[in-house]
TrEMBL record:
Molecular function (Gene Ontology), one example: sigma factor antagonist activity
Organism encoding this protein: bioreactor metagenome
Domain FecR protein span(s) in chain numbering: 90-172
Membrane spanning stretches: 47-67
The protein's name in its UniProt record: FecR protein domain-containing protein
């Protein structure tokens, strides 16, 4: 049976609540007033790029103090201020990032050197493309997260204790204040409390679905949009012709059927669609 967005998001909130209750019971949450529930993403109707909508995710280019050793490099900053949807974008290495409300990421326009480094403030979910020669490093105020290729979320807003849950793969977390390092594997969650890294079992993996059931794109390549939709839906079976891969689309998709999704994309970009077996093929 297909779960509704409401059920998924409620389950995610309950999963986070149970995690914090367990840590509180162990005496690892010193200030309960600083702990808040994760954002509940409410369902909105699917909106095609042709519709008139207001996008509050912004993209800016700046010279960043984050680039300590490369002060002349241009950096990109993504900010999501929309509480009704998650802003998704695909990086140049193929990694997908999903930003919840009041979340900012900052990264170089092009990854160079021996690592892919970004800065995060807020609540985000990552599906990192594997590259053993260039680990993916997330810098936050209190922790550093290092991965080769995996999917996980990180919450590091100023008013909550930093936390992380791993969906697939393995991540290494370093507490900056003490230098303590731990590895968190799939099915585990981590919370920073009293300057200690605490690992517990993630009781409900549906918490990750809250990031992928109501996704918003802004000026995103159609190829990236289709990959994200196919990756995060059991029903989505979309395919596009290579000549339209670079077409840009601005749209919000909820947990709609493949029929609805392909119809909206076709309408927005003036494309043709045909069904080939279980897949929808979009072309000029």
């Amino acid at each position: 049976m297909k779960m509704t967005n409401t059920n998924i998001n409620n389950n995610a909130d309950k999963a986070w609540s149970r995690l914090y209750e367990r840590l509180e019971g162990d005496g690892l949450v010193p200030d309960q007033t600083s702990v808040v529930k994760r954002v509940s993403f409410r369902k909105v109707r699917t909106i095609a790029a042709a519709a008139a909508i207001v996008i509050v995710a912004s993209v800016t280019y700046l010279l960043s103090p984050f680039a300590k050793d490369n002060a002349d490099l241009r950096y990109i900053s993504f900010l999501n201020e929309d509480s009704l949807s998650v802003f998704a974008t695909t990086l140049e290495d193929g990694s997908a990032i999903y930003l919840a409300n009041n979340t900012t990421i900052e990264l170089p326009e092009h990854f160079s050197g021996d690592k892919r480094e970004i800065k995060l403030s807020g609540d985000a979910y990552f599906q990192v493309a594997r590259d053993e020669k260039k680990p993916f490093v997330i810098e936050t105020e209190r922790i550093q997260v290092k991965v080769l290729g995996t999917s996980f979320n990180v919450r590091c807003a100023k008013d909550i204790a930093p936390s992380l849950s791993v969906n697939t793969g393995l991540v290494e977390v370093t507490l900056k204040k003490t230098g303590e390092k731990v590895r968190v594997k799939a099915g585990e969650s981590l919370l920073v409390a009293s300057n200690v890294l605490k690992i517990v079992k993630t009781e409900d993996l549906s918490l990750f679905d809250a990031y992928t059931t109501n996704i918003r794109f802004k000026d995103e390549r159609l190829e990236n949009v289709v990959k994200i939709l196919n990756r995060n839906s059991q029903d989505a079976n979309l395919e596009i012709s290579p000549d339209i891969a670079d077409r840009k689309i601005t749209a919000t998709f909820d947990n709609s059927s493949p029929e609805v999704v392909q119809e909206l994309i076709s309408l927005a970009l003036n494309l043709k669609s045909e069904k080939r077996g279980e897949r929808y093929y979009l072309h000029q």
